[in-house]
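Design a sequence for this backbone.
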């Protein structure tokens, strides 16, 4: 039984991943924005343990987590939580840029830093659930794509820095996934939304769990998943 910490377990890919691991009897630690959400996660995933800290405030993570019990050993840290605000370069104000960078890149960097001792003890795997926008920046999503390009850079540096400690780092790049975030994006852009042409969250979760199960003699550095055949 492994020990795994997941962000974004409240919905979408994070919830699907937590569900798969819970079915296997794994030891789950779930990060929630606040204690109310943490209680909801404990109810949804009985036997899981929770941490409460707001990824939108990465400079406060050390203080928030310093008041709580942390795992001494982690087999995996899965960064699934993210935020998206559509807008053109001409239309986005600095606060929106900074908000996406905080949640999508700076918070994962800080959370990883704080949990490196536990990851080194295993040694464990770090999985960054990125986005197709982390490979190709579409119009109207410049701020989001920039934060995801930065997340890819974070993963590449971490992979090289922690290779000798035995930590393996994987970035997963899903295409469009049927999640509440995807539905909100289509609504904001005024586009019709068809879940049937998207990846299922459960499919991406299966890929993430497959990364965890990959033999320790190799690293799945990057994994791209596209909808359809």
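Sequence:
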């Amino acid at each position: 039984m492994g020990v795994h910490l997941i962000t974004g377990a409240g919905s979408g890919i994070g919830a699907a991943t937590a569900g798969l691991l819970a079915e296997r009897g794994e030891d789950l630690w779930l990060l929630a924005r606040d204690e109310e959400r943490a209680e909801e996660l404990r109810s949804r995933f009985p036997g899981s343990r929770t941490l409460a800290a707001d990824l939108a405030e990465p400079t406060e993570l050390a203080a928030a987590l310093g008041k709580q019990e942390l795992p001494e050993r982690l087999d995996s840290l899965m960064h699934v939580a993210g935020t998206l605000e559509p807008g053109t370069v001409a239309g986005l104000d600095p606060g929106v840029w900074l908000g996406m960078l905080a949640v999508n890149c700076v918070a994962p960097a800080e959370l990883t830093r704080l949990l490196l001792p536990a990851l080194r003890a295993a040694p464990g795997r770090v999985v960054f659930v990125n986005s197709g926008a982390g490979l190709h920046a579409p119009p109207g999503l410049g701020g989001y794509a920039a934060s995801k390009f930065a997340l890819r850079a974070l993963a590449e540096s971490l992979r090289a820095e922690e290779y000798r400690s035995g930590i393996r780092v994987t970035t997963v790049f899903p295409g469009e996934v049927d999640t509440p975030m995807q539905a909100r994006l289509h609504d904001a852009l005024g586009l019709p939304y068809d879940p049937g042409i998207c990846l299922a969250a459960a499919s991406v979760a299966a890929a993430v769990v497959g990364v965890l199960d990959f033999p320790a003699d190799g690293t799945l550095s990057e994994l791209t998943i596209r909808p359809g055949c």
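The first strand starts at residue 3 and ends at 7.
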